[in-house]
Amino acid sequence: MSTGMGKVEFHHGVGDKLSYACRLLRKAYKAGAQVVVTGDAATLRTLDKQLWVFDDQEFVPHVMAGPNQPVPERQNETPIWLSVDPSSAPGERSILVNVGQEMPAGMERFPRLFDIVSSAPDDRQLGRQRWKAYAAMGWQVQPHEVKE
Description:
CATH class: Alpha Beta
Radius of gyration: 15 Å
């Protein structure tokens, strides 16, 4: 019985995890999705910088939300949140994107999870562990091999 369990889209074989995440987030933003991106703080800071410069034609609205950091009210409507703590994002967010190497905290709050795994051996190994953990929790895991 899968009460409230979500779906994991497992994007693996990615050459550059963060530039792939930028393209995925641009697509999500254009589709009107409300997204939270999670990972370790250093990775999120790098992604924050890349989102400003990866496409000189378009801006992908996002906010970097730090732990215990008050966020101005108007930023609650920002469609893309970068946060080490996905449960801190305001409102109903339908998609969680994991660019980190850990199981994302608070993932049960999201109906859809995108887990991005690079082709680096250590990242692939940790990705396999997350895949097994998602499946063990009853989440539906769908692989998407990325040819970059």
